[in-house]
Write a structure and sequence with these properties.
This protein has 5 helices and 2 strands. The protein is mainly α. The protein has 2 domains: 67 residues, no CATH class; 45 residues. It has a two-stranded antiparallel ribbon. Strand 1 and strand 2 form a beta hairpin. The two termini are 37 Å apart.
């Protein structure tokens, strides 16, 4: 089976259909059509997310609530990270098991230490 069809099947199974035009473009199949689809399926959503994050950041500096200032995106991400770390530590206390991400990090760092 051709590599192109294997890639397209994997993308389809994984539900990452926005990658399909990129693969087809690499194989030079209807380049104009693929570039149009890439713009519609990748660039426009990325642009929309960027505009949203920018508006959120700018507006968070101006909005004051009873509880305090509205957090900007980086403060929100930091808080989410802290909550996730707290939840992992609590889970470790309860189960005594190390979360998979910690196992991966230890393995990943170990690979570099012994190289």
């Amino acid at each position: 089976m051709n590599l192109k069809y294997k890639l397209l099947k994997a993308v389809d199974i994984a539900g990452l259909n926005f990658l399909r035009p990129i693969i087809l473009l690499c194989y030079k199949e209807e380049p104009e059509e693929q570039l149009k689809k890439i713009g519609q399926q990748v660039l426009i959503p990325l642009l929309a997310i960027t505009v949203f994050m920018t508006i959120w950041y700018v507006m968070s500096e101006e909005i004051q609530t009873k509880s305090g200032k509205l957090p900007n995106p980086s403060e929100t991400l930091g808080a989410a990270s802290a909550i996730s770390t707290f939840a992992q530590r609590e889970n470790m206390k309860e189960t005594g098991d190390v979360p998979m991400i910690v196992k991966f990090q230890v393995c990943f760092l170990g690979c570099f230490l012994f190289v």
